[in-house]
Specification:
By secondary structure, the protein is mostly helical. The chain has a single domain (69-275), classed as MetI-like fold (Orthogonal Bundle), CATH 1.10.3720. The chain is 70% helix and 0% strand. It is built from 14 helices and no strands. It has helices at 2-37, 42-45, 60-68, 71-102, 108-117, 127-137, 143-147, 154-164, 169-177, 182-193, 195-210, 214-219, 228-231, 244-275. The protein is flat. The two termini are 44 Å apart.
Length: 281
């Protein structure tokens, strides 16, 4: 009886490992194709049957992609914006989440519901009013326009609030007995215990702003304020045709920081997503 149960569990585990392995390969195929195409010449890109391994490895595509546009400036702009927004969201989201999770004040639940309802508003709906506000402040084509509107995030507040509520109240009571104030408790006790959700929010914030295209396209006009995502469009040509090898090499430049950042926070990110929301309001 026990052997049959163990056999069934083993077969079930093997089955799911195979399913997950096939799914992982399917998800990775576009990225593998991008890497492969970035090392191909124009004659190999649309060859049939398709070649996953280039016949001639053209590392020159990366040199040409870097020199075709001011990628150094684009990279700097994207890095400054993504890091600034990530740090800003971690500060604002942690403070707001602490207030909603640990403090008692009149109308807290209603305020949180209204705050959370803003996640249902599409970003495209707020483009025009946001643009007019920035124009009035004379912030167009500046770092302020790229950073300030995204320093707060309702979804980030929700995630951190849910995680904060899973931590025992006894920690805060003990900290108060030792003379620890609220901000000190948040900084020295709550946040160190919340590394998984902090890493998750940091990843979401960094990815969202690193991959942002529409907003930088609207609020920036000069070459020195463009970001990497906008820089990619310089490789798309309707007249002379797109050089796909160079275009994919440029895409690799853009995607590498995201991959590295994810690998850096992968363990904490998975733990944070798995534990968020285990305890409700």
């Amino acid at each position: 009886m026990l052997r049959s149960k163990r056999a069934r569990k083993t077969v079930f585990a093997i089955f799911w490992y195979i399913v997950l392995g096939i799914t992982a390969v399917a998800v990775m195929l576009p990225y593998i194709w991008m890497l492969s195409t970035s090392l191909k010449g124009s004659d190999e890109v649309f060859a049939y049957p398709p070649n996953w391994i280039p016949r001639t490895w053209r590392f020159q595509n990366y040199v040409e992609a870097w020199n075709a546009a001011p990628f150094g400036r684009y990279f700097l702009n994207s890095a400054v914006v993504a890091l600034a927004v990530t740090i800003g969201q971690l500060i604002t989201c942690s403070l707001a989440a602490f207030a909603f999770a640990r403090m008692e004040f009149k109308g807290k639940d209603v305020m949180f519901a209204l705050f959370l309802s803003t996640t249902m508003i599409s970003t495209q709906v707020t483009l025009v009013p946001s643009y007019l506000v920035l124009k009035t402040l004379r912030w167009l084509d500046t770092y302020q326009a790229l950073i300030v509107p995204f320093l707060a995030n309702a979804f980030g507040v929700f995630m951190m609030r849910q995680y904060f509520m899973t931590l025992p109240r006894e920690l805060e009571d003990a900290a108060k007995l030792d003379g620890c104030g609220r901000l000190r408790f948040l900084w020295q006790v709550l946040l160190p215990l919340s590394k998984p959700i902090v890493a998750s929010q940091a990843l979401f914030a960094f990815m969202g702003n690193w991959n942002s295209y529409l907003w930088p396209l609207i609020v920036t006009t000069s070459e020195h304020m463009r970001t990497l995502q906008i820089g990619l469009r310089y490789f798309v040509s309707q007249e002379g045709g797109t050089q796909w090898g160079i275009f994919m090499a440029a895409t690799v430049f853009v995607s590498v920081p995201i991959v590295l950042f994810y690998l850096f926070v992968q363990k904490s990110f998975v733990e944070g997503i798995a534990t968020t929301g285990l305890k409700g309001a």
